[in-house]
Amino acid sequence: MTQLKQHPKQQELIKFAYWVPNVSGGLVVSNIEQRTDWSYDYNVKLAQTAEKNGFEYALTQIRFTAGYGAENQHESVSFSHALLAKTDKLKVIAAILPGPWKPALAAKQLATIDYLTEGRIAINVVSGWFKGEFDAIGEVWPEHDERYVRSEEFIRTLKGIWTTDNYSFDGKYYTFKEYTLKPKPLQKPHIEVFQGGSSRAARDMASRVSDWYFTNGNTPEEIKKQVDDIREKAKQNNHQVKIGVNAFIIARDTEEEAKAVLQEIIDKANVEAVNAFGDATREAGAASKEGEGNWAKSTFEDLVQYNDGFKTNLIGTPEQIAKRIVELKSIGVDLILSAFLHFIEEVEYFGEKVLPLVRELERKSENQQQITAKSA
Ligand SMILES: Cc1cc2nc3c(=O)[nH]c(=O)nc-3n(C[C@H](O)[C@H](O)[C@H](O)COP(=O)(O)O)c2cc1C
């Protein structure tokens, strides 16, 4: 009988994930040298390096076509499984798009992977932002908020199938009649469900059904607004949701070096690809009724990292970055989703130089809280 592998309990510590470079071109749309590769061999080495260096999660991306220089894309679920086969502790979050994926197949496929990997698969339900991609593969393209209606049904049905026998659901997009999935996933109560997107519709969905809310990079002030908003609504819905924030990390021995790398990335931006990406994103956050979702306010420079990762400003010395990470934690962020220019070497540097400082600051702040609590 396969046993569920226990994940180390680190509830009180901020968690780290990294973007799997399963698409070509790295995580910045720039002609700067990137010692990052989308091949399987590179990704296996990266995953093994990451789990040794304190990363608990990896996130694979799903793309069927791409307009921002990521010409080649390995499929997310099979790639995630292949990385899980070569690692021990890492959890891999596979991005899934409702539309191409149907919940019956996704539930079954993921439950099997859960068994084969001792409970280390998770998913990121992404609602789609690129109409050209959906047109190319013959999928219908519901308008912005409707995509979230479908995603919410997708998540509800997955969780229903994973936890309930004789499961029935009569929704707008999906129907189940007394369906029993066997075996159910190993992870209890079910496989973790992340979601990506920041619009009103995305936040409302997170506050009702998702286990994790992933958002694009942003300033602590803007992230705090999202965290407060989602947590307040989740409380009303009697639901708990954790928060993950994207950041492109440039950690160097001096602040000048780190800033110079950022400048070089931007100076060497692939202007045509960034602009094409910017045009495609108008179907996303800006298309939502309130116009507040991902990329709604992104500048050209922001878009060079395609999930606004520079805005989070984890760019500087290990000390500066550790301090900013702990600030993010203090406003309610549970996880940093990181990307790097030269993934393997920088994940190692992060594990050796930045992470110990983060843990030290967390310990200090915990001690401080205990002293304050005692003297109150
Ligand atoms: C962390 C993160 C990861 C994402 N990964 C993918 C992906 O792999 N594939 C994809 O098509 N969209 C991906 N998206 C895009 C979202 O699903 C969504 O379409 C986009 O953020 C716009 O959402 P909004 O209009 O609700 O803000 C991701 C978004 C975030 C924040």
UniProtKB/TrEMBL annotation:
Coiled-coil boundaries? none
Q: Name one GO molecular function term.
A: alkanesulfonate monooxygenase activity
The GO annotation for biological process reads: alkanesulfonate catabolic process
Keywords of the record, alphabetical order, are: Flavoprotein, FMN, Monooxygenase, Oxidoreductase
Q: Which domain of life is it from?
A: Bacteria
Luciferase-like domain span: 15-334
Q: Which Gene3D superfamilies match?
A: Luciferase-like domain
Q: List the InterPro entries.
A: DMSO2_SphG, Luciferase-like_dom, Luciferase-like_sf, SsuD_RutA_monooxygenase
Respond yes or no to whether keyword Flavoprotein is given for this record. yes
Which Pfam family, just one, is annotated for this protein? Bac_luciferase
Q: Can you say what this protein is called?
A: Dimethyl sulfone monooxygenase SfnG
The species is: Acinetobacter gerneri DSM 14967 = CIP 107464 = MTCC 9824
The root-end lineage is: Bacteria, Pseudomonadati, Pseudomonadota, Gammaproteobacteria, Moraxellales
